[in-house]
Design brief:
By secondary structure, the chain is α/β, with parallel strands linked by helices. The chain has one domain (2-217): Spore Coat Polysaccharide Biosynthesis Protein SpsA, Chain A, CATH 3.90.550.10. Helix content is 41%, strand content 16%. The protein has helices at 15-25, 41-47, 61-71, 91-99, 120-137, 153-158, 168-178, 201-217; strands spanning 2-8, 30-35, 51-54, 76-79, 105-109, 149-152, 183-187. Strands 3-2-1-4-6-5-7 form a seven-stranded mixed sheet, sandwiched between helices. The relative contact order is 0.17.
């Protein structure tokens, strides 16, 4: 079974379209939403058939993602941002690389080239951190922060990661690499988001560097 998990906070403008797209592409998939919104996001998602776990007041992205990953029932878990920036049509391809081809983690990299939807400062920061991680882990990496990945469920259960703080996707990529699990990179499109971003660039940069160094030297 495939689980698609999303973290939501005030995504009422996008959640309906994203859930509908997932259902179109992967009928029968578990759609799990961990929601910390004070708008109608949870109600919209639930009305469309998604399983919603409320985490309110918010405890941060990392804790919400940890809850989603640990609560998912599928043999493969696909993470997806709920702002309509990622191509739902790629869910099945990423999942099948785990289910059929034996990969443990499949990273949906946005950075084959610069996406039009990504500001230049974000692009250079992402490229710089990916370059640094590539050196430390002796692996060609392009996108440490992708919100679209497929994980084998048992890998999530085996790796130890810190859900506290920002940039959790960085650690969820690097720890399996350090433990010699099989990684596949698939380039994906990246679109303009629906709604307002809640990302804090300086905090994200600090935690990205912290996670790279901690995983490498712990």
């Amino acid at each position: 079974m495939i689980s698609v998990v999303m973290i939501t906070r005030n995504e009422a403008k996008a959640v309906g379209r994203v859930v509908t797209d997932i259902q179109r592409v992967v009928p029968g998939a578990e759609i799990l939403v961990v929601d910390s919104s004070d708008d109608q996001t949870a109600e919209i998602a639930q009305s469309l058939g998604a399983k919603v776990i409320r985490q309110y007041p918010p405890k941060g992205y990392g804790n919400a993602m940890d809850l989603a990953l640990q609560s998912a029932l599928g043999d493969v878990i696909v993470t997806l941002d709920c702002d309509d920036t990622y191509p739902a049509d790629m869910i099945l391809k990423l999942a099948n690389l785990v289910l059929r081809d034996g990969y443990d983690v499949v990273d949906g990299s946005r950075l084959k080239s610069k996406p039009k939807a990504m500001p230049w400062i974000n692009y250079f920061a992402n490229k710089g951190f990916a370059w640094l991680a590539s050196i430390f882990f002796l692996k060609h990496l392009t996108d440490l922060h992708s919100g679209m990945r497929a994980y084998r469920k048992e890998i999530i259960q085996k790796i130890k990661y810190n859900p506290q703080g920002a940039a959790l996707p960085v650690e969820l990529l690097l720890r399996p690499i350090k433990m010699n699990y099989r990684l596949k990179v698939v380039y994906i499109d990246y679109f303009d988001r629906t709604g307002k971003s809640t990302m804090r660039p300086l905090e994200s940069a600090y935690w990205t560097l912290k996670r790279i160094l901690h995983v490498r030297f712990s």
